[in-house]
Amino acid sequence: MIELLAERFNFIIVIILMMTGLYAVVATGNLVKRLVGLSLFQTSVFLLYITMGKVFGGQPPILPESAEGHGETAGYDAAAHAPETALADAGHHVEAAIYSNPLPHVLILTAIVVGVATLAVGLALVVRIRESYGTIEDEAINQADYAVDSAGKNA
Amino acid sequence: MDFLASLLPAHIVEHAPAIVVVVPLLMAAIAAILPNGKLGWAVALVSTVISALLAIAIVVDVQAGGVVSYAMGGWAPPAGIEFRIDSLNAVLLLLITLLGLLSVIYALPSVADEIADNRQSLFYSAFLVCFAGLLGVAITGDAFNMFVFLEISSISTYVLVGMGAARDRRALTAAYNYLILGTIGATFFVIGVGFLYMATGTLNMADMASRLPDLSSSRVVQAAFAFIIVGLGLKAAMFPLHLWLPNAYAYAPNFVTTFLATTATKVAFYTLVRFMFDVFWPEAAFVAVSFFWVFAVLGIVGMIVASIQAVFQEDARRLLAFSSVAQVGYMMLGLGIGTAAGVSAGMLHLVNHAMMKGVLFMALGAFAVRFGIRRISDLNGFARTMPFTSVAFTIGGLSLVGVPMTVGFWSKWYLGVAAFENGWWWAVAALILSSLIALAYIARMLAAIWVAEPHHDRAGAIASARAPWMMLAPMWILAIANIWFFFQPDFLISITNAAAEAAFAGEAR
Q1: DSSP assignment letter at A55
Q2: Does residue B506 carry a pLDDT above 70?
Q3: Which of A70, B238, B256, B488 could cross-link to A74 by cystine, CB 3.0-4.6 Å?
Q4: Chain A, nearest residue to B377 by Cα
Q5: Do A18 and A48 sit in the same domain of this protein?
Q6: Cis peptide bond N-terminal to B17, omega within 30
Q7: Whether residue A54 is found in the same domain as residue A16
Q8: Where is average pLDDT lowest: A81-85, B70-74, B149-153, B287-291?
Q9: Contacts of B198 in chain A (CB under 8 A)
Q10: Given an 8 Å threshold on Cβ–Cβ distance, is A38 in contact with B194?
Q11: pLDDT tier at A69 (50, 70, 90 boundaries)?
């Protein structure tokens, strides 16, 4: 049992973070705290992806420096100009090494950008809500809206 | 269409799938630095025209050759990102660009009325980002790329909805709630894509589709399906995940509501079709179960409950927003039938609903630009004040109910036929019941417009009441389309049948 849990340690952390975040979004009436929960929720997904990319005993997926006669820049240039030959070349002198899967890392870099943009827009909206309602508590905002609604009906 | 496509030089058509998305994205940056709203609008107009022309060129290509595949940056799929257009997303491409173009024409007077002068060019910039994002979602063949485009369009949508705050501060809370729910939906989607990547080792959707049937007993794949359906269902405002929609539509600027109602939920619905029928496959036990227990049941409950909620709304746009949720229910029912006829009917309703809601929201915007109204009781006697807009509104409303002589009739007809072929007579009964409720809420608005006496305070304004022609023209183009496609439905039916066939083509692999 413990072995099973230990093997899946990262996934357990992911689930705990995910549920904490989702609970925070649902449970709090404070708009900023909700965004904190949302960020936590998104971050747990980043961890999920990074866990996928892990290969036991794997090295960072970076071409070794000047392995066979060509230095850093030469290797870089070759990769830029003729991707196929560079890759074939790389495959040739990399055989022995095990690499972590770089793709999930790249995906998550993109997802982090998306998360930051969402958070920025969310906080900007909260600032505007604070300016026009004078509060960032959900309940108070609803009350203010309800008051406007019923005033409109009476008029 | 062939003529328009032939106007473009060949080397541009070759790269059209990339350019159609890149143009609005780059133009958004240009629009953001322009000093005044008119210039921003011109940039938006130019880029939507370019995108529409390119989309037509792509669709002509698809009709001739089946599938257009474009390798982004020259990296061949499945390793590179692929833009892939078949008959299914060709429909969406055409819908987004053409309705985007009509909305932009409509935008100039509407936005000038609602948005502060110094923010208009930024507003158009956000619109272009949203437009590019929606096109990207429709065009991409890569699951993670789809998430990124989905978020590009969503984040700009939150901004656009929030811009309604100048009129009503509730737009801010509507945008905030939309942001929270939309982000949860997108995150669910990306969890599902992650699971699929774990199981298949690929992100290319066509490649995924060919590998998944071997993995049908895998829990990871089944969990991925559940996460993706919930995530995309939230974006598509599938009942009961629609809570963000009514307020977002009711308080956003009129132009934004028109654009979102005609395109955004449609694109999310397309992604559902893509994943259910193409990436996953309808024979799998866990997909087949969802047809009845998720899509048919929730679709029917949605179309009846949301219609009833619509009947009791005071705010005209909120009423139509609830009606939109009900219409998503019809499309979901089409999916739930699970046959090619059902998917075809769902896609047909998707296109038709874009046309009728386009007219209705444009007409409400035209009422608003002259008199700033939003409540149904304020519509009293508008037939005398603004006859052109009122007639267009009536055509749209009748089409929404599904009265013969309007295109809405065909959606319900084909949906009913597809349900009946499946032996689902109760679905047909629900369809009729929901249409009757739709008649009730549309009749309420039409009665206010045509029968009720106008308010006294408006009497003096009657002389100057006609809506600007830039609002009337796109509104009437859509209104005439609503009638035209009743008499000439062949074009619509052939493209939606081709779309359904493309969705089911995955089985052949």
Answers
A1: -
A2: no
A3: A70
A4: A153
A5: yes
A6: no
A7: yes
A8: A81-85
A9: 52
A10: no
A11: very low
B184 shares contact with chain A (CB less than 8 Å) = yes
Percent of chain B with pLDDT over 70: 96
Answer whether residue A154 shows pLDDT above 70: no
Q: What is the average pLDDT across B254-272?
A: 92
DSSP conformation class of A60: P
Verify that A29 and A86 share a domain, yes or no.
no
Q: Beta-strand (E) ranges in B33-144?
A: 68-71, 82-85
User: Mean pLDDT over residues A22-44, rounded?
Assistant: 93
> Is a pLDDT exceeding 70 seen at residue B119?
yes
pLDDT tens for B294-315 read 899 999 999 999 999 999 988 8
Cα B240 to Cα B294, B298, B299, distances in angstroms: 11, 8, 9
* Per-residue confidence (pLDDT) for residue A67, from 0 to 100: 54
Q: Is the pLDDT of residue B34 over 90?
A: no
Looking at residue B456, its pLDDT comes to 61
Q: Which of B148, B183, B197 sits opposite A38 (nearest CB)?
A: B183
* Judgement on whether residues A54 and A106 belong to the same structural domain of the protein: yes
Contact in structure between B235 and B158 (CB atoms under 8 Å): no
Copy the structure tokens of residue B466.
């006609």
- Give yes or no: residues A47 and A119 share one domain: yes
Residue A41: its pLDDT value, please? 94
Nearest alpha carbon to residue B186 among B144, B220, B214? B144
Do residue A109 and residue A87 come from a single domain? no
Residue B229 in contact with residue B197, Cβ under 8 Å?
no
Dist CA B89 CA B135 (whole Å): 10
Amino acid of residue A52:
M
What are the backbone angles phi and psi of residue B109, rounded to the nearest 5°? -65, -35
A45 and A118 inside one domain: yes
What is the ipTM for the molecules in this complex?
Answer: 0.89
Number of residue pairs across A and B with CB atoms under 8 Å? 74
Instruction: Measure the CA dihedral B72/B20/B53/B43, to 10°.
Output: -150
Domain that holds residue A105: 2-58+101-154
The whole model's pTM is what? Answer: 0.90
Q: Do A72 and A114 sit in the same domain of this protein?
A: no
Q: Mean pLDDT, to the nearest integer, of A96-121? A: 89
Query: Counting Cβ atoms within 10 Å, is residue A61 exposed (0-12), middle (13-18) or buried (19+)?
Result: middle
User: What residues of chain A lie within 8 A of the CB of B155, using their CB?
Assistant: 114, 117-118, 121
Q: Is the peptide bond before B78 cis (omega within 30 degrees of 0)?
A: yes
Distances in Å between the Cα of B127 and the Cα atoms of B139, B425, B497 are: 18, 43, 31
d(CA B257, CA B365): 9
B289 and chain A in contact, CB less than 8 A: no
Is B148 in contact with A114 (Cβ distance < 8 A)?
yes
Q: For residue B51, give Cα distances in angstroms to A77, B73, B93, B335.
A: 36, 20, 9, 29
CB-based contact B295:B239 (threshold 8 Å): no
Q: Judging by beta carbons within 10 Å of its beta carbon (0-12, 13-18, 19+), is residue A28 exposed, middle or buried?
A: middle
Name the domain count of chain A.
2
Q: Residue A41 and residue B187: Cβ atoms within 8 Å?
A: yes
Q: Which residue of B has its CA nearest to A127?
A: B172
**Where would I find the H helices in B163-264?**
170-200, 205-211, 219-235, 245-251, 254-259
